[in-house]
């Protein structure tokens, strides 16, 4: 069956319908990772978005039980040049297309993804629809609905749950958490309580956390004002580590500003300079918003990490409290694991804060 991808600017791509056959609208973005499609499709930060893979052949190693970043994917669509129908890998349990059908994710193959990516790079991210191809020669440009603003409430856990451990007590505020973050904390023996995004500072303090983590998540950070209030109330009291949306929320809570990028950063090889260590790391990224660098001046935040490609803000730390955050993904999944030292940094901050609190008694 033929299907069309129609962009807001009127560009139409026709290809083969794959995955779920329904009509779907979303924001179109591209990811440059050569592998990692399973993690990308199950990353809740893509809620509301359709992702174009720039690598031309997707699905080669199938779907396995280990690489999910959430149980129920919330991505709105997948666009590929070619989809592999017969995966070959010892871990593969399913084909990509069967997975897309089961999880009701619409997809299209046969698209010139290089051309599509060039359009997105030129015009910025756009609204788009995946819809059944019509016989008409003239493309019918759809009317687009208002962009979503409630993605975080769609993907955050509705109830708190615990991953028990004997180490530090961490409250992990779930804005659309990738499982990789939880894995990195449990690997370090933490006792993790995952809580909904709208938990108040009082509810969080009642759990007596040694540290608080703010996860990644979908959409505009300004759509979750309750989180900035919660962070403001906690920042002087408990060590905090934020990732991606969590980094944007920490920055907003400290008085910085965020902006929408033209086409964002999505891929597994984005170079980032750690200004403190004077070292460059290759990082995994997925974001369409960024903290405005000029807005940091009037805050108590210092710039710690910068994107090599476009000088955008990739990390900040608080000048007085043990709070820091990065725009990229130290949990990788998919991508290089070189930045996992930031989880160790968080553990050190917690240890030092505990020591200082004891000495102050
Ligand atoms: N991965 C994320 O947390 C993404 C953060 C935010 N939704 C953005 O696109 O910038």
TrEMBL record:
Pathway the protein contributes to: Amino-acid biosynthesis; L-arginine biosynthesis; carbamoyl phosphate from bicarbonate: step 1/1; Pyrimidine metabolism; UMP biosynthesis via de novo pathway; (S)-dihydroorotate from bicarbonate: step 1/3
Region (CPSase): 1-168
InterPro entries xref list: Anth_synth/Amidotransfase, CarbamoylP_synth_ssu, CarbamoylP_synth_ssu_N, CarbP_synth_ssu_N_sf, Class_I_gatase-like, CPSase_GATase1, GATASE
Source species, domain of life: Bacteria
GO process terms (BP): 'de novo' pyrimidine nucleobase biosynthetic process; 'de novo' UMP biosynthetic process; glutamine metabolic process; L-arginine biosynthetic process
Positions that bind L-glutamine: 45, 217, 219, 245, 248, 286, 288-289
GO molecular function terms attached to this record: ATP binding; carbamoyl-phosphate synthase (glutamine-hydrolyzing) activity; glutaminase activity
Keywords annotated in UniProt: Amino-acid biosynthesis, Arginine biosynthesis, ATP-binding, Glutamine amidotransferase, Ligase, Nucleotide-binding, Pyrimidine biosynthesis
Cited CDD domains: GATase1_CPSase (cd01744)
Domain Carbamoyl-phosphate synthase small subunit N-terminal, first and last residues per copy: 1-131
Residues the record marks as active site: 244 (nucleophile), 329, 331
E.C. no: 6.3.5.5
Keyword Nucleotide-binding: yes
Quaternary organization: Composed of two chains; the small (or glutamine) chain promotes the hydrolysis of glutamine to ammonia, which is used by the large (or ammonia) chain to synthesize carbamoyl phosphate. Tetramer of heterodimers (alpha,beta)4.
NCBIfam families for the chain: CPSaseIIsmall, PRK12838.1
Family: Belongs to the CarA family.
Protein role: Small subunit of the glutamine-dependent carbamoyl phosphate synthetase (CPSase). CPSase catalyzes the formation of carbamoyl phosphate from the ammonia moiety of glutamine, carbonate, and phosphate donated by ATP, constituting the first step of 2 biosynthetic pathways, one leading to arginine and/or urea and the other to pyrimidine nucleotides. The small subunit (glutamine amidotransferase) binds and cleaves glutamine to supply the large subunit with the substrate ammonia.
Protein name per its UniProtKB record: Carbamoyl phosphate synthase small chain
Native organism: Streptohalobacillus salinus
Native organism taxonomy: Bacteria, Bacillati, Bacillota, Bacilli, Bacillales
């Amino acid at each position: 069956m033929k299907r069309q991808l129609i962009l807001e600017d009127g560009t139409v791509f026709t290809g083969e319908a794959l995955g779920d056959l329904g009509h779907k609208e979303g924001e179109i973005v591209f990811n440059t990772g050569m592998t990692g499609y399973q993690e990308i499709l199950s990353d809740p930060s893509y809620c509301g978005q359709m992702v174009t893979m720039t690598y031309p052949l997707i699905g080669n190693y199938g779907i396995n039980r280990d690489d999910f970043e959430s149980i129920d994917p919330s991505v709105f669509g997948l666009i590929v040049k070619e989809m592999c129908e017969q995966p070959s890998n010892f871990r593969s349990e399913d084909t990509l297309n069967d997975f897309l059908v089961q999880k009701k994710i619409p997809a299209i193959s046969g698209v010139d993804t290089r051309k599509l990516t060039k359009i997105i790079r030129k015009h910025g991210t756009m609204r788009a629809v995946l819809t059944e191809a019509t016989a008409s020669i003239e493309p019918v440009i759809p009317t687009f609905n208002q962009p979503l603003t409630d993605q975080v409430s769609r993907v955050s856990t509705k109830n708190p749950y615990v991953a028990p451990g004997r180490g530090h007590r961490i409250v992990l505020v779930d804005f659309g958490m990738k499982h990789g973050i939880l894995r990195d904390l449990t690997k370090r023996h933490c006792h993790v309580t995952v809580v909904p995004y709208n938990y108040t500072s009082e509810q969080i303090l009642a759990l007596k956390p040694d540290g608080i983590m703010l996860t990644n998540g979908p959409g505009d950070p300004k759509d979750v004002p309750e989180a900035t209030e919660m962070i403001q109330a906690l920042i002087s009291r408990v060590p905090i580590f934020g990732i991606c949306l969590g980094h944007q929320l920490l920055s907003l809570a400290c008085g910085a500003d965020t902006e929408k990028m033209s086409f964002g950063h999505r891929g597994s090889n984005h170079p980032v300079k750690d200004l403190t260590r004077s070292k460059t790391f290759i990082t995994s990224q997925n974001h369409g918003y960024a903290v405005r660098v000029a807005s940091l001046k009037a805050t108590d935040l210092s710039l710690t990490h910068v994107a090599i490609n476009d000088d955008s803000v990739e990390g900040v730390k608080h000048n007085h409290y043990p709070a820091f955050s990065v725009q990229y993904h130290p949990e990788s999944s998919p991508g290089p694991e070189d930045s996992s030292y930031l989880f160790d940094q968080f553990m050190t901050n917690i240890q030092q804060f505990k020591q200082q609190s004891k000495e102050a008694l």
